[in-house]
Design goal:
The protein is α+β, with helices and mostly antiparallel strands. 28% of the residues lie in helices and 11% in strands. Strands 1-2 form a two-stranded parallel sheet. α1 links the parallel β1 and β2. The longest helix has 17 residues. The radius of gyration is 17 Å and the shape is globular. The relative contact order is 0.14.
């Protein structure tokens, strides 16, 4: 996927320096996020991608979508409720159950 987004030739040693980081296929922060279904953004406060989740949830709302929900689990790590060390602890089970309930309510 990324190879098709390179600006230079394929002989570059550092191809990542030639990526257009504002390309929507690389960063959804720059995508057209309008007319999308309800979305649940689930992230833990210890997730290294917390800022990305906050930015994307905000952009989703600005896109004029009908419903977006952001849930932050205090102390949660990346993948809370779905994989990793916290998958089956109480917080992980709660996060997974909330995701299921969201899907049943909005997407089914």
């Amino acid at each position: 996927m990324y190879c098709s987004k390179l600006k230079g030739g394929s002989n570059n040693d550092d191809q990542s320096a030639n990526l257009d980081r504002r390309d929507p296929s690389i960063s959804p922060l720059y995508a057209n996020l309008s007319n999308l279904p309800p979305a649940l953004f689930t992230v833990g406060s210890a997730d290294p991608l917390l800022d990305d989740s906050l930015f994307l949830a905000s952009r989703y709302c600005v896109g004029g979508n009908n419903y977006a929900e952001l849930v932050i689990y205090e102390g949660g790590e990346h993948g809370i409720g779905h994989f990793g060390l916290q998958e089956d602890d109480e917080m992980g089970k709660r996060a997974r159950q909330y995701t299921y309930e969201f899907m049943k309510h909005y997407l089914i």
